[in-house]
TrEMBL record:
It is a multi-pass membrane protein. This is ABC transporter permease. GO terms for cellular component: plasma membrane. The lineage of its organism: Bacteria, Pseudomonadati, Pseudomonadota, Gammaproteobacteria, Cellvibrionales. Keywords: Cell membrane, Membrane, Transmembrane, Transmembrane helix. The chain crosses the membrane at residues 12-30, 42-59, 65-87, 94-114, 143-161, 190-212, 218-236, 243-263, 269-287.
Length: 308
């Protein structure tokens, strides 16, 4: 395997891992605030459909990204209202949201199936893009990949070094204590859920406007579920999410790599690899939880309302 081949593999790994990174960052923020939203898959699909339709109609990729983010936020608000304001079961609400998002995206995009647009082009950064091995993977990507890097750095700084990050963690650990200290628990949780929706919508925009600039039903291909597993794999730590996203991204392209080297394995079996990795990771994490414990927020998924 020569250097150019390794560079191409790393390049594809980063691209494939980008939507997982975006969704996982949003899901982690929501879960850090104590809200378990299993509707990531549905929000990705709605964002991808709305982003593609807006870009196709306006001939503007920027409008497509904006529409996808807004769509993700709107759908997340639906979840927040049902799960937080009406205090419904968060697991059931998230699953219903995925079903709703899948059907809504198929309905909205029915007239655009198979349509294509000119997506985001790669932008090579001077000097940095020429660094051996990592230059192409990190500094010769499209604008949405660079945006994902910036968002990762922003979330890392907010959660690690700012008062806002401390408040979010406090709400996720013990909302009663946070409320007693004067923090608006519902506002924080609504904001965290909306951020998660925006990130899922942005991931959808990446899929339909950059990764494969076209619309097809089910374009998310289970990435919402993989991202949820990735958050657990990363133990709700921002810095681990980036490495986890790239690991899962590599697992997603491994079947193409093995086929390229002539391994006679069923392509359907190889395509299962990222989902097999997801299951293995979840099993290992459950074993770790039983023996060592995890870093999950203590109030994750638990309903809460302000005491009267």
């Amino acid at each position: 395997m020569d250097i150019s081949m390794i560079e191409n593999i790393l390049f594809a790994m980063v691209r494939t891992g980008t939507p997982l990174l975006l969704v996982a960052l949003g899901a982690m923020m929501s879960e850090r605030a104590g809200v378990l939203n299993l509707g990531q898959e549905g929000m990705i699909l709605v964002g991808a459909a709305c982003g593609f339709i807006a870009a196709y109609a306006s001939n503007s990729l920027g409008m497509g990204v904006l529409a996808a983010v807004i769509a993700g936020v709107v759908v997340s608000l639906l979840f927040a209202f049902i799960a937080l304001t009406l205090i419904s079961n968060q697991v059931a609400t998230g699953l219903a949201l995925t079903i709703f998002g899948t059907g809504l995206s198929a309905f909205l995009g029915a007239a655009y199936v198979g349509q294509t647009i000119t997506g985001f082009n790669t932008v090579k950064l001077p000097l940095l893009g020429d660094i051996p091995l990592i230059g192409k993977a990190l500094f010769d990507q499209d604008l949405l990949v660079y945006l994902a890097f910036a968002l990762f750095a922003s979330v890392f700084v907010v959660m690690r070094y700012t008062r806002l990050g401390l408040i979010i963690r406090a709400v996720g650990e013990n909302p009663d204590v946070a409320h007693a200290l004067g923090y608006k628990v519902m506002h924080v949780r609504y904001g965290a859920v909306m951020f998660g929706g925006a990130m899922a919508g942005l991931a959808g925009a990446y899929l339909s406007l950059a990764y494969t600039p076209m619309w097809s039903e089910g374009i998310a291909a289970g990435r919402g579920w993989i991202a949820l597993a990735l958050v657990v794999f990363a133990s709700w730590r921002t810095e681990r999410i980036l490495l986890g996203a790239w690991l899962f991204g590599f697992a997603s392209i491994l079947h193409l790599l093995l086929q390229g080297y002539g391994y006679e394995i069923s392509p359907n079996l190889l395509a299962m690899l990222p989902y097999v990795v997801t299951i293995v990771v979840l099993v290992l994490m459950m074993y770790r939880q039983q023996n060592q414990g995890l870093f999950a927020p203590r109030s994750l998924g638990q309903p809460w309302h302000a005491p009267k």
